[in-house]
């Protein structure tokens, strides 16, 4: 089952997931042709390698592979825009809860190798 997991992470959690597929809820700050700079739910900035991946919404969830502690190579994005602002502190609180051992049965994780 691990091959189908894509955990939600914030910028602080990227370093422990190099080479893995993750989901990063974020706010788009800047776009260029193949790169986007986003703000993760914990306030950290992440570079998104986004060749042929649409990021036109203000808030998106990036699904991609972690290149390093501050870079994700995007495979796809999901728009998260709603009426007004997205409560990124609440998003971050939920992300951090998913890493607590008391929720192991609810949120599958990568097995460390």
Automatic annotation (TrEMBL):
InterPro entries: NA-bd_OB-fold, Rfa2
GO biological process, one term: mismatch repair
Compartments, record wording: Nucleus
Predominant subcellular localization, coarse grouping: nucleus
Key words, A-Z: Nucleus
Any Pfam family hit: Rep_fac-A_3
Any one GO cellular component localisation term in the record: site of double-strand break
GO MF, one example: damaged DNA binding
Xref: PANTHER family: REPLICATION PROTEIN A 14 KDA SUBUNIT, REPLICATION PROTEIN A3
Record family assignment: Belongs to the replication factor A protein 3 family.
Protein name: Replication factor A protein 3
Source organism (scientific name): Suillus discolor
